[in-house]
Design goal:
The structure holds 2 protein chains of 2 kinds.
Chain A lengths: L1 E10 L2 E11 L4 E5 L6 H9 L6 E6 L2 E2 L5 H7 L1 E4 L11 H8 L12 H7 L1 H4 L11 H13 L5 E4 L8 H16 L3 E4 L4 H7 L2 E6 L2 E6 L1 H5 L2 H8 L2
Parallel strand pairs in A: 3-8, 3-9, 6-7, 7-8
Antiparallel strand pairs in A: 1-2, 1-4, 4-5, 9-10
Helix pairs in contact in A: 3-6
Chain B lengths: L2 H25 L2 H24 L10 H16 L5 H23 L4 H21 L9 E2 L15 H24 L1 H11 L1 H6 L4 H27 L1 E2 L6 H14 L6 H19 L4 H14 L3 H13 L1
Antiparallel strand pairs in B: 1-2
Helix pairs in contact in B: 1-2, 1-6, 1-13, 2-6, 2-9, 2-10, 2-11, 3-4, 3-5, 3-9, 4-9, 6-9, 7-9, 10-11, 10-13
Classes of the chains: A alpha/beta, B mainly alpha.
């Protein structure tokens, strides 16, 4: 579904990515791991068109989307749940969901507002509340809801559970597992290795802007040196 | 802010406005009719500015240009003996829209202070264009030979008729803004104001949405200009001067930026205070300025927000 090859990205004269390789199959959950500052978020930004890559290719279902405007990439089927949630504070929960809904990919079973509220029942009771009146967990649920309302082929979550209470984190992981069971392809960044291991089909580790390792959760478990060296676990 | 309280305040204002012709007739003071009509025309202009400033976060310091363009379209048409309102008014809206597309395409590529300066510069360009049009009165302006003619349908040469036409236009403008803001388009516009990058990554070409809002606002202001030309029976470049754009911004701030009826309240309060204070002193701005500062500092949501909250607390 998504193939990232030899991706290189810079911010001005400062190069951050030197060669990222990533492969996500249909319905797969893939993780992107690495220590802080290694280029995970920049990789996501490059995929989503928020920064233009310098070199390499990003192929989504046969189409090279590298360097396209971010709204075109979103319409091609990539939904992003950004770091820090970034819900629209001046819109209500309902407006956050309604404003962003589209089904350009032609999903046969598109997400609707009712489906999202069934999926995240705690949002239903806050439906007319403003975005900035929600708790962190509710904001993350809304951010996920908002992304899936675009019926993406690939859902990307940057720091999926950062700053959330343990119970809320557990709820978010359950939600992602449910999305996976419905066939949703997901690329997720998070620091909780145990939770990622439970949900992931494939891990990709990057170090200083370069892909250094990839494998299944089982393979990663068998490589304690890799975990220690690149993840500090 | 209480929605019920807002409806009550706005309803009272419109009831008051509807009774102005009767009051003017009973007291034999046509001045009030003239004053209220001017308030309502500028309220339409302020409503249009609120669309892009209050909901879109685009602080245009040149919005009066579109009022001027609308007024000049009517004035120039009349000068060439094209007096049909069925042609003049749509043409005023259309011409304002065309200018808004051009100015929007230029200015919307910038943000913040650069956007403010570009809109200001473009409006001043239009002001000096008006000054240089000797054929149409130049600096002195141009009297309207005849008000827009709607044949047998309605005769706006009658001041009361024109008054109710303006009142109807204001109600329609308010209704139009309400529908627009509550539509998906309005939500995308508001979302773009708070986080443009995010809106782009959800799949919305934000420039296109902002430009559309900019053009709609320009067309609405152009319509206000067509009404203003008929109201004053006169057009002049001062209608496009940057200080007029500043007045519109003050009206929006005073009434309540980003609230639907705030600009109406703001326009009414602004014109009323201008009239009252200028009767007290020639330097009325010395009193108005501190008042505006107090409103901005202490009346969150402008006058409409302040009174609506008070009504809710008391009620």
């Amino acid at each position: 579904m998504l193939e990232v090859r030899h991706l290189e990205t810079s911010y001005g004269s400062s190069q951050v990515l030197y060669g990222i390789e990533l492969h996500i199959g249909v319905g797969q959950v893939v993780t992107l791991m690495g220590r802080n500052g290694m280029g995970k978020t920049t990789t996501i930004k490059s995929i989503c068109g928020m920064v233009a890559p310098q070199a390499g290719s990003i192929i989504l279902e046969g189409q090279d989307i590298a360097g396209l405007p971010s709204h075109t990439i979103a319409r091609a089927g990539i939904g992003l749940v950004p770091e820090g949630r970034q819900i629209f504070p001046n819109l209500t929960v309902k407006e956050n969901l309604v404003a962003t809904a589209h089904n350009l990919a032609g999903s046969p079973n598109p997400w609707t507002i009712d489906r999202v509220l069934d999926f995240f029942p705690s949002l239903a009771s806050r439906i007319n509340g403003m975005g900035n009146e929600l708790s962190g967990g509710e904001q993350q649920m809304l951010a996920i809801g908002r992304a899936i309302m675009t019926n993406p082929k690939l859902l990307i979550l940057d720091e999926a559970t950062e700053g959330l209470a343990p119970q809320i984190r557990a709820d978010i992981w359950l939600s992602l597992a449910e999305l996976k069971s419905e066939g949703q392809a997901i690329l997720v960044i998070d620091k909780n290795l145990a939770a990622l291991n439970r949900i992931a089909d494939q891990h990709f580790i990057i170090e200083k802007g370069v892909s250094v390792w990839s494998g299944t959760p089982k393979e990663l478990d068998a490589e304690p040196k890799i975990k220690e060296r690149y993840l500090g676990v | 802010m209480g929605n019920r309280a807002q409806i009550l305040i706005v309803g009272t204002i419109f009831l008051g406005l509807a009774l102005v012709p009767l009051f003017a007739e009973l007291t034999q003071t046509p001045f009030y009719l003239d004053l209220a009509r001017r308030m309502m025309i500028l309220a339409i202009g302020a409503l249009s500015l609120n669309l892009i400033m209050g909901y879109g976060g685009l602080i245009s310091f040149g919005h009066a240009a579109y009022i001027g363009i609308g007024a000049y379209t009517v004035g120039i048409c009349a000068e060439h003996e094209l007096v049909s309102g069925f042609i003049q008014w749509p043409l005023a809206i259309l011409v304002s829209g065309v200018f808004a597309i051009i100015f929007g395409l230029i200015s919307l590529r910038t943000r913040g202070v650069y956007f403010i300066m570009i809109t200001l510069a473009l409006a001043q360009m239009m002001y000096f264009l008006g000054v240089s049009l000797d054929r149409y009165g130049g600096d002195d302006g141009l009297p309207l030979i005849e008000r827009s003619n709607f044949g047998a349908l309605v005769d706006i040469s009658n001041n009361v008729t024109l008054y109710f036409i303006v009142l109807g236009a204001l109600v329609l403008s308010l209704f139009f803004c309400k529908r627009l803001i509550n539509s998906r388009f309005g939500m995308v516009l508001q979302g773009t104001r708070s986080n443009e990058t995010r809106m782009k990554t959800i799949g919305f070409p934000t420039l296109r949405y902002q430009l559309t809002a900019f053009v709609i606002a320009g067309m609405m202001a152009g319509f206000a200009g067509a009404l203003l030309a008929n109201h004053t029976d006169f057009i002049n470049p001062d209608m496009m001067h940057w200080t007029r754009s500043g007045d519109l911004i003050i009206m929006v701030l005073l009434g309540g930026m980003g609230s639907l009826a705030g600009p109406v309240v703001g326009a009414l309060a602004f014109i009323l205070l201008e009239e009252l204070l200028s009767g007290v002193t020639e330097y009325w701005q010395l009193i108005f300025g501190p008042f505006l500062i107090l409103v901005v500092l202490f009346a969150r949501g402008g006058l409409l927000g302040f009174f609506a909250d008070k009504e809710q607390r008391d009620g």
